Fold this sequence. Notes:
By secondary structure, this protein is of the alpha/beta class. It is built from 22 helices and 12 strands. Magnesium ion binds next to loops.
Amino acid sequence: MATPATQQTAMHVLRRLRQAGYCAYFAGGSVRDRLMKCRTHDYDIATDATPKQVKQLFGHVLLVGAQFGVAVVVHKKETVEVATFRTDATYTDGRRPDAVTFATPREDALRRDFTINGMFYDPVSREVIDYVGGQRDIERGLIRTIGSPDARFAEDYLRMMRAVRFAVRFGFTLEPATRRAIKTYAARVVGVSGERICDELTKMLALPSAAEALVMLTDTGLAAHVLPARFAVGWDGAVARVAALAKHKDTTLMLMGLLGDMPAASANKRLRHWGASNALRDGVAVAHSHWNAWRTLADAPLCTFKRMMASEHFGRLRTLWRLLEARETGATRQSRRIARRAGGIDPRQVAPDPFITGGDLLAMGLTEGPALGTILNALYDAQLNEELSSRRAALAMARKLI
Ligand code: ATP
Ligand code: MG
C-alpha cells in the first residue's frame, strides 16, 4: 500500500523535475501548513511538465487523473501528486471541470478555492510565491475565496463546506463576503454528490473541534441542507454529543452519536445517499437499536449481555452509553456495572462456536423452516447462559425441544 509522500520524497520528485528543466513548486495545503507551522500530511507538486512528460521522467507513474492534468508519482511506496499548472474550464456538473487547459503558475493559483490554499513554495530558494494574498489572510486568520465568492461557489458548491472545515480546523473566521455568499447559496449544497459531502463531513468530524464545525454549519445555514432530518429534530443534543465524543478520534463513534437516535430509516437513507461504508452504517444501526440499553443491560440475561459484547461496536456503544447516562442521571452507575460485568466474562465464552448447528438438527429429522432457527437460537442462548456444558447436553436439549 502506498502512503502520501514525506517531505523527503516530495523533494526528490521536485529536484528531478527541475533537473529535467521544468518549473516545479510545492502547492496548496503543504504551503499553507508550513506557513502556519502545522504538520502537513501530504505534499502536492505543481509543475509546467505535462502528465506525459512526468511519466517519462519517473519509473512508476499513475496516469488516472491525466485528463485533469494530474500524474501520481510512486517512489519508495509513497505517492506524490504532480499536477500541471492549469485553469479549469466550466463546471457543468458542479464537481469536475469539463476540461482543463495548461496554464501559468499564476492562473493555476487563481483556480484554487481559498487564498490560504492558493500559494506555491520553492523549497530550493525557500520563497513563497503568493499571487492571491494568502500570507496576509493567514496573518489575519481569514478564509476568503480567491476572486468573487458567488462565482467560485457556483463553480463548486462543495467549497462552502470546505470553507467551514478550514475555518474550524485553523480557528479562522470566514471573511464577510465569503460568509455572506455561503448563507445565500447554502441550499445549493444539495446538488453536490453525497459522496463528496460525506467525505467533507467525515473530515470535519475527525477534527478535535468537530462540534464547532457543526455550529458553523448551523450558523451558515448549511446544516439544514446537509442533514435536514437531523437538523429538524434533536440537533442541539446531537451537537453536544459530538462535542463530548470528539476526543476519541473515531468517526464511526461520532456518526453513532450524531445520528443514532434518529428514526432508523431516515438515518440509513442519509447514509446510503452518502455512499457510506457498510461498517459505518452498521455502527449507526447498532447505536439506534441499543440506544437505551445502558438502562437494563447490566441486569440482562447472560446470553443477551454476551451477544452485545460480541458486536464489533461494543466499545463504542459503551462510550456512548456512558455519555447518555451521565447526561440523564449526572452519574455513570449503570455504565460502571456494565464494565464490571464485561470484565468478569471470559473472552473465549463471549461468542463460542455453537455446540449444535443447523446440519445437526436436519440430521435429527427437523425440516428447514422458521422452527429450525428458533430452536438453534434457544440452544445457543442456553450455551451462552452456560446452562449447557457440552455437545452431548446440547443434543439432549435439542431432542427435548424437537
Ligand atoms: P488537507 O490538509 O485537508 O488535505 P489541502 O489543502 O491539501 O488540505 P485538498 O483537498 O487535498 O486540500 O486539495 C489540495 C489543493 O487543491 C487545495 O489546497 C486547493 O488549492 C485545491 N483544491 C482542492 N479542492 C478544491 C476545490 N473543490 N476547488 C478549488 N480548489 C481545490
Ligand atoms: Mg491534501
